[in-house]
Amino acid sequence: MKKIYLLLIVLSMAAGVQAQNINLGNTGGFFGWFRLGTLTLQQQGADASIQIVSGGGYNANYHQNGECQIHFRTSNGVSETNGFFASGSFYNTGRTKIISSIRVIQVNQSTWEFYAVMPSYTGLEAVLSLSSVSGNWQPSLAKLDPPTNLTALDLTEEFLVSSNTYFMDNVGIGTATPREKLSVNGNIRAREIKVEATNWPDYVFDEGYEIISLPKLEQYIKVYRHLPEMPSAKQIAASGLAVGEVVRLQQQKIEELTLHLIEKDKNAMQLEKKLNSQTALLVAFEERLKKLEHPNSQNSITNKK
């Protein structure tokens, strides 16, 4: 008996969710605003999930495939934003962006007309699917601009992930051909970047580390136009800059330069000591020379006293 009750509960819950799969229609070679259809959805926080599976061509190229997911939710019948009693967002997946803008016209608090900017060819059998408990979709695809005399809302396009996300293959941002685990065709801005590094060049300060002499370094630079072990401009242009490796090499060159500076400072101190010693000898020599040149000067001073 309990199994029967449980089955009835499950069946009643399943029956409460309505699903419609509708032929979206073909945009027929035109690009721009289209009226998609009309959603009937009551107030009190009713949800509607609308998915469009379509394309941007018809020659079986997977680059033309795309999907759009729309989430629309009504208000409580009281709360509103600029007179609009609902909210929503959407996002696109696939190689073709099926919808670039969505504007929802509020006919009344339970009737909503959806307009979208669509590609020029969606296909003869593009699919629009609606999942909702109480909602109903009436298709009416037509090349029409949204009316401007009714309350409207432009839905936000965003894809927000609020949980840990794992990708097992390469990820591309701004590129469809990522060559690394993460390939970005554009700028990256961050507060801090940590790069795993090994063989950090503290070995430069080990006893017995041979550092290239400055004359040899000068000759190398004249021939190759870059520092030893550092990648050349051609290598960077062809393969990119490996941040971790280049930072390690730069640190090695900084430490080698530090050793050169220490050695030069020691030499400078030795030269300074030698110069001071020679200066003292020169002063003493000048004093003795004066006495030899003027032997009676001291006697004259003594007699005057």
Order of secondary-structure elements: HEEEEEEEEEEEEEHHHH
Number of strands: 13
If helices are DSSP runs of H or I spanning 4 or more residues, what is the number of helices? 5
Q: What gyration radius follows from the Cα positions, in whole Å?
A: 40 Å
Distance from first to last alpha carbon: 141 Å
Q: Give the proportion of residues in helices.
A: 25-40%
Low-confidence stretches: 4-15
Number of domains as seen in the coordinates: 2
- Strand order in the largest sheet: 1-8-3-4-5-11
Structure classification: alpha+beta
Strand content: 25-35%
Summed over residues and divided by their number, the pLDDT gives a mean of 89
Task: Characterize the largest beta sheet: strand count, sense, and whether it forms a barrel.
Answer: 6 strands, mixed
Shape: elongated
Question: What do you see in this structure?
Answer:
This protein has 305 residues and is α+β, with helices and mostly antiparallel strands. It folds into 2 domains: 17-157, no CATH class; 196-305, no CATH class. 30% of the residues lie in helices and 27% in strands. It has helices at 2-15, 214-224, 233-239, 243-293, 297-304, and strands at 18-23, 32-40, 47-55, 65-74, 86-94, 101-108, 111-118, 127-132, 136-142, 152-154, 156-157, 171-173, 182-184. It has a 6-stranded mixed sheet, with no helix packed on it. It has a 5-stranded antiparallel sheet with strand order 9-2-7-6-10, with no helix packed on it. Strands 12-13 form a two-stranded parallel ribbon. It starts with a helix and ends with a helix.
Brief overview, please?
The protein is of the alpha+beta class and 305 residues long. The chain has five helices and 13 strands.
